[in-house]
Design goal:
dTDP-glucose 4,6-dehydratase, binds nicotinamide-adenine-dinucleotide, globular, NAD(P)-bd_dom, dTDP_Gluc_deHydtase, NAD, 3-stranded mixed β-sheet, 349 residues, alpha/beta, lyase, single chain, 7-stranded parallel β-sheet, 16% strand
């Protein structure tokens, strides 16, 4: 299959690009290379005859038309987005422009391309979204988000993703474009941009700095190793039913404090301190406004209908992640030098 991947120089997109090429798919990576885009994430496949790169912005409709016509893909796998909740609190405008208007442009460009080729049944448009569109769950409850959970986004990031999800649903119902939609829990793993929680903790620990935890650390997230997410997306692309949505999750709920403590235990083993534990440096910092209490995904549909299951357990995934950051200092040093990275954001004032 020839897949046009948008956002393929980001964290999740690059895992998709690397896996798709490894499985023999041709990949065209369309990425604007914003502050979050990093060509080094796909360096391992850059010389493959299966790989092409197009620097383009999904807000630029003419560029999308040109790239679709030039490469004639069988499918679009759409991951390009502004993705950092704290940044969305400080500057929501670009989240609406990229996540909503950009997705609208891509849907329209794909619809024109698909119609121009006689509406092939096998064409696919897979839109990658987040569990954050469902809002927040109460602490301690057993309820999890399913594909029929109502939308209740509470941050500008989640609202922009929710809006784009609705556009995708409408383009399927109204125009018959063979769209699929996935909503996934928090990812972690190699190439995670240094401003997100897990890399912040690892890199601060390496530097001997405090390890910041928002609020009282009780917010619960459901974690999935990024390569398992990439595997799920290719599975949905190959076997999912157009018009259907699939929730993707690792069934690994951890409070932020428990997550940071687990990371400290791995760091104590892999990068021990002369004295004491990395956990001694945990500090509580002012919370993010509107910080959702708990996310949890019920992945029964993708498991039962498509036979997908995560392959990497949480402890194993954390060890792989810490080991990767320890071995790839050149990668993260270059990114932490980018303007504004590492500054506390999203305090809402
Ligand atoms: N990271 C997670 O835990 C997670 C979980 C569920 C869903 N998702 C979704 O997966 C997708 C990718 O997330 P990520 O964490 O890899 O994000 P990321 O910020 O690491 O990467 C985003 C990529 O998109 C590119 N991009 C941004 N704006 C663009 C534009 N206007 N035109 C073209 N390219 C543009 C960036 O250059 C970057 O390479 C997002 O849609 C996100 O909502 C992420």
């Amino acid at each position: 299959m020839k897949i046009l991947v948008t956002g393929g120089c980001g964290f999740v997109g690059s895992a998709v690009v690397r896996l798709a090429v490894a499985r023999g798919h041709a990949v065209v990576n369309l990425d604007a290379l914003t502050y979050a885009g990093c060509p080094a994430n796909v360096a391992s496949v850059a010389d493959s005859p299966l790989y092409r790169f197009e620097q383009a912005d999904i807000r630029d409709r003419a560029a999308l038309d040109r790239i679709l016509a030039a490469h004639a893909p069988d499918a679009v796998l759409h991951l390009a987005a502004e993705s950092h909740v704290d940044r969305s609190i400080d500057g929501p405008g670009v989240f609406v422009e990229t996540n909503v208007t950009g997705t609208f442009n891509l849907l329209e460009a794909a619809r024109g391309y698909w119609a121009g080729r006689g509406r092939p049944e096998a064409f696919r448009f897979l839109h990658v979204s987040t569990d954050e569109v469902f809002g927040t769950l109460p602490h301690g409850a057993s309820r999890r988000f399913t594909e029929t959970s109502p939308y209740d986004p509470r941050s500008p990031y989640a609202a922009s993703k929710a809006a784009s999800d609705h556009l995708v649903g409408a383009w399927f119902e109204t125009y018959g474009l063979p769209c699929l939609l996935t909503n996934c829990t928090n990812n972690y793993g190699p190439y995670h941009f240094p401003e997100k929680l897990i890399p912040v903790i690892i890199l601060n620990a390496i530097a001997g700095k405090d390890l910041p935890v928002y609020g009282d650390g009780t917010n619960v997230r459901d974690w999935l190793y990024v390569e398992d997410h990439a595997d799920a997306l290719l599975r949905v692309l190959e076997a999912g039913r157009p018009g259907r949505r699939y929730n993707i999750g690792g069934e690994t709920e951890r409070s932020n404090l428990d997550l940071v403590r687990a990371l400290c235990a791995v760091l104590d083993d892999m990068r021990p301190l002369a004295r004491g534990s990395h956990a001694d440096r945990i500090v509580f910092v002012p919370d993010r406004p509107g910080h959702d209490a708990r996310y949890a995904i019920d992945p029964a549909r993708i498991r039962d209908e498509l036979g997908w299951r995560p392959a990497v357990g949480f402890e194993d995934g954390l060890r792989r992640t810490v080991g990767w950051y320890l071995e790839n200092e050149g990668w993260w040093r270059a990114l932490t030098a980018r303007g504004g990275v590492g500054r506390r954001r999203g305090l809402g004032r």
